[in-house]
Design brief:
Layout (H helix, E strand, L loop, with lengths): L2 E5 L11 E5 L5 E5 L3 H8 L10 E4 L4 E4 L1 H14 L3 E5 L5 H13 L3 E4 L5 H10 L6 H8 L2 E5 L3 H4 L3 H6 L15 E6 L11 E4 L2 H15 L13 H13 L2 E6 L1 H4 L4 H17 L3 E6 L6 H12 L5 E2 L14 H6 L5 E5 L9 H7 L4 E5 L4 H4 L3 E4 L9 E4 L5 E4 L12 H11 L1
Length: 429
């Protein structure tokens, strides 16, 4: 007789816990229920051709496979020989693996950074300040009768966001589900999410910010003093009226809105709007929605171990933390690190041409389960188990819910989890 096993999906930061994997009598997968296309793409990596099946080191013209024990020895030696290594990534692995990465960076007086240094660290700091993190997804499901998507297209990046929490489900105070919610989308382009919005604002990036500031001013009772391209005064007045008639407004925003040099200003503008909405006696929260499934876990673990959320330089006691100066990209660009250990990140795809040139001038070690540009440009890569499918650990949902991952499969022979591999390396250094 077959069996049904529960699985936590690590396709995005929603970490859906209701996935059913059906096995037949012979232990083969017969069906999968409740998994979205993003989660299924990750699931398919169990058998895809570009799955890394062995660790390898670069020779003169090609990579040569090496055993996992050899990989441990070589990585440990490379790290020990480095004067200032960079350890970067971590949004796609467990909190236990992240702690080991921090231990290695601390021991070697290196630099530790995660993907949050591009802006999410500040977004989460402000969300916590305005009490907009804990259990926000369930609160949205039960109470939010107005949902705003700001530079965030969940239909593409977090496909079950709408069906589980923000648009379609019936909640305690939103008994009619989608019929009882107003949906507002503010974005720089048409998206699948904007197609179902009641209020849609497709604007240039600078006008997005201007719109939010204008709404905040109008909520205070100030007259409209500025114009926004293609947005009429009537449309703005109707939106402000909708805000005031709501009982709970839930804002979700994505990286497309704030991942640039002005991210602090943009995030502050969001929470100024939250404040103004609350002043008219409407409950309001604003939650960032990262793509990496354990972005919040990376922030929380780094905070717990160092007092900082990201971009930690263990060699600099005077200025140990600075997202602007100590981030991985800046440290690479400025030539301040002499080796990079990249864990679960395709950083090469994010680098500018000058930064890529600097990156290719230092030894690069990659720990990942799938081939990427970063793997192709590394000196040594280590094939790892897929967290959530082949290995477990602790992770945090986007709204701070702590979740334990339980694997359903065994990794291929000669392949370890991130945690096990880093533990072996730490013991060698």
């Amino acid at each position: 007789m077959g069996r049904v096993e529960k699985l936590v999906c690590t396709g995005c930061s929603l970490l859906c816990e209701d996935i059913d994997v059906v096995f037949d009598d012979k232990g083969k997968i017969n069906n999968i229920f409740s998994m979205c296309n993003v989660g299924f793409e990750r699931f398919k990596h169990l058998s895809l051709d570009n799955r890394l099946k062995s660790s390898a080191i670069r020779g003169e013209n090609k990579f040569t496979n090496i055993s996992i024990d050899d990989a441990v020895e070589r990585v440990a030696e490379m790290l020990k020989a480095s004067k200032k290594p960079l350890l970067y990534g971590w949004g796609y692995c467990s909190c236990e693996a992240i702690k080991l990465g921090l231990d290695i960076a601390r021991k070697l007086k290196g630099v530790f950074d995660n993907q949050a240094s591009k802006g999410y660290w500040y977004a989460y700091a402000q969300a916590e300040k305005y009490e907009s993190i804990s259990n926000v997804l369930e609160k949205t499901l039960d109470y939010a009768n107005h949902v705003i998507f700001l530079g965030f297209n969940p239909a593409e990046t977090h496909p079950r966001h709408a069906s589980r929490y923000s648009i379609f489900p019936r909640g305690v105070k939103v008994e009619k589900g989608v019929e009882g919610r107003s949906i507002t989308v503010i974005d720089s382009e048409e998206t699948k999410t904007s197609r179902i919005a009641h209020n849609k604002f497709i604007l240039e990036a600078e006008d997005e910010l201007k719109l939010i500031k204008t709404i905040s001013s109008m909520l205070k009772g100030e007259k409209l003093t500025t114009s926004i391209s293609d947005v009429s005064e009537t449309k703005l007045l109707e939106l402000v009226r909708d805000f005031k008639n709501s009982s709970y407004i839930s804002i979700f925003y994505g990286s497309s809105f704030f991942e640039n040099r002005d991210y602090r200003l943009k995030v502050d503008t969001i929470y100024q709007l939250v404040e103004k909405i609350r002043e008219v006696n409407v409950e309001c929260t604003a939650l960032p929605m990262p793509k990496p499934y354990n972005m919040l876990g990376a922030i929380k673990t780094t905070l717990k171990e160092t007092g900082y959320p990201c971009a930690v330089d263990f060699s600099d006691e005077e200025k140990k933390h600075s997202p602007e100066e100590k981030s991985a990209i800046n440290m690479i660009l400025n030539g301040e690190v002499d080796l990079a250990l990249i864990v679960g990140s395709n950083i090469f795809a994010e680098l500018s041409r000058p930064a890529r040139k600097k990156f290719m001038g230092i030894p690069v070690i990659v720990l990942d389960f799938i081939e990427s540009l970063t793997v192709k440009n590394s000196n040594l890569y280590v094939a790892s188990a897929i967290t959530g499918l082949e290995t477990g650990g602790t992770v945090y949902r986007a709204d701070e819910k702590k979740i334990s991952l339980t694997p359903l499969f065994k990794p291929p022979e000669n392949i370890l989890s991130d945690e096990d591999f880093l533990s072996k390396v730490y013991k060698k250094i």
